[in-house]
Amino acid sequence: MKNALITGITGQDGSYLAELLLSKGYKVYGLKRRTSLPNLENVQHIEKEIEWVFGDLTDPGSLIEAVLRSNPDEVYNLAAQSYVATSWDQPTLTGNITAIGVTHLLEAVRRVKPDARFYQASSSEMFGKVQEVPQRETTSFYPRSPYAVAKVYGHWITVNFRESYGMYACSGILFNHESPRRGVEFVTRKVTRAVARIKAGLQEQLAMGNLDAKRDWGFAGDYVDAMWRMLQQSKPEDYVVATGETHSVRELLEIAFHHVGLNYQDYVYVDPALIRPAEVDVLLGDATKVRKLGWKPRVSFPELVTMMVDADLASIQGRVLNVAAL
Ligand code: NAP
Ligand code: G4F
């Protein structure tokens, strides 16, 4: 049986990856921050199958302890301050977690279990003001937010540990991927949750930012399989993971509202406060390289959006029932 250590396991991707590795017979160790209240919603169905280790990417000693305890064959670093908009409000915190935190974890692996295979969650945000279309592994980075700058650091320190120490360390440059487990502030979930609430009469309007931004959106459950495949190869390399399609925020609104028989223009207004100081206008990935590992996206953009709306509708109905039962 292989051991895997996952940081960021309570987040969207961590929960899907934990499910995947458990289904493959791994013993899964999950790094978890101390929180004042439980935040295990995404992993409650597998909570008892996971070996929990407490730690924080900003605390090197706790990461050494986590690697010692888990004795991992594979380490997946998914933890980050991952919300781009917050990175302008908290740039130093974002750098400490999303950039320097990667070095803390790589150092812990290098000192304790240097033959462990290491995955770094790099991001298409690194392409920022894109230098070519579509973006591929060789496209230059031009980060447009403190988050993206931190991710560029995390990406290159991973390359550096691979080249300096011969570690099996690689990065997946993942384009946006979403699911019903997505945090509620990200644009897809913000929209699908609002659609469900408007349909249920719990909300009247929806304030949005830049409706013209375009993203290459896929399904998170598909993308964690690509992470695993990257760590099963004979040598470590970096890979772009994307669908190869791009859609605007406006298209997202159209599909989500239309799914419940509504017109988004009757409910949505643009709030200038939600426009970012610097924007990534369009992302579109070329996943040719990772497709050669047998990976491909399985959920289309309309399927993804309607899946998320349906999940939010079901969640609201469940909540109403629960309240009624009290
Ligand atoms: P997410 O839902 O925001 O999850 C982030 C995770 O990181 C949470 O488990 C969070 O724990 C944990 N975390 C935050 N700060 C930490 C710290 N100081 N120490 C330890 N853990 C910490 O993110 P996601 O969407 O699953 O994304 C996973 C990773 O992929 C992130 O690194 C993200 O930047 C990157 N990425 C995501 C996408 C995407 O479209 N989803 C695309 C490219 C790259 P709490 O639950 O305690 O907050
Ligand atoms: O959903 P978003 O907040 O995601 P963003 O900024 O693309 O970042 C996500 O994907 C990255 C991969 O490319 C990850 F690395 C990162 O961790 C995160 O998961 O915003 C998407 C787009 C942006 O252009 C934003 O300006 O939607 C636009 N947008 C328009 N109105 C909005 C809103 N975004 C949010 N969150 N809220 C709005 O009201």
Automatic annotation (TrEMBL):
It is an enzyme of class 4 (lyase). Catalyzes the conversion of GDP-D-mannose to GDP-4-dehydro-6-deoxy-D-mannose. This is GDP-mannose 4,6-dehydratase. One of its GO terms (molecular function) is GDP-mannose 4,6-dehydratase activity. It catalyses: GDP-alpha-D-mannose = GDP-4-dehydro-alpha-D-rhamnose + H2O. The keyword Lyase applies. Keywords: Lyase, NADP. Its cofactor is NADP(+). It comes from Alicyclobacillus fastidiosus. PANTHER family: GDP-MANNOSE 4,6 DEHYDRATASE, GDP-MANNOSE 4,6-DEHYDRATASE. Coiled coil: none annotated. Belongs to the NAD(P)-dependent epimerase/dehydratase family. GDP-mannose 4,6-dehydratase subfamily. Its EC number is 4.2.1.47. Residues 5-308 form the NAD(P)-binding domain. It comes from the Bacteria.
